[in-house]
Amino acid sequence: MPEYDYEFLSCVPLDEETVGAGDFEGGLKETKRYKAVLEKMFPQSSEFKCSFVRRGMPHDFGTYHEVCIKYETNDPASREFAIFVADNLPETWEDSRVMNFDHPSRMNVEAAETLG
Predict the structure, then answer these.
(1) What does the alpha-carbon distance between residue 65 and residue 12 come to, in Å, rounded to a whole number?
(2) How far apart, in whole angstroms, are the C-alpha atoms of residue 69 and residue 67?
(3) Domain that residue 14 falls in
(4) What are the beta bridge partners of residue 53?
(5) What is the pLDDT of residues 6-39, one digit of tens each?
(6) What is the pTM of this model?
């Protein structure tokens, strides 16, 4: 049975301001928006057994939310994709890059399909 872990990615792009920790509804809105940005920016997530999820975290001022990437811990490609995402986060809401991850194991599968 697969085991999963989470890499915390923040609640907004790196150079953007966040709503305060006490703004529950605002936090839900911004993490929903950020999750959608990440899903467009990293369209290969499911290929590497990863998914973007929103998680609530307790805080002195109430619950705040972050977007995480959930990855399969026993799969090296899944872990490496999660690290790739964490190393290439968008800086602003306007960042429209599409990031492609070329993992050696994926290239070997594509080569085998070509030869097969």
Answers:
(1) 10
(2) 7
(3) 4-115
(4) 68
(5) 999 999 999 999 887 778 888 899 999 999 999 9
(6) 0.85
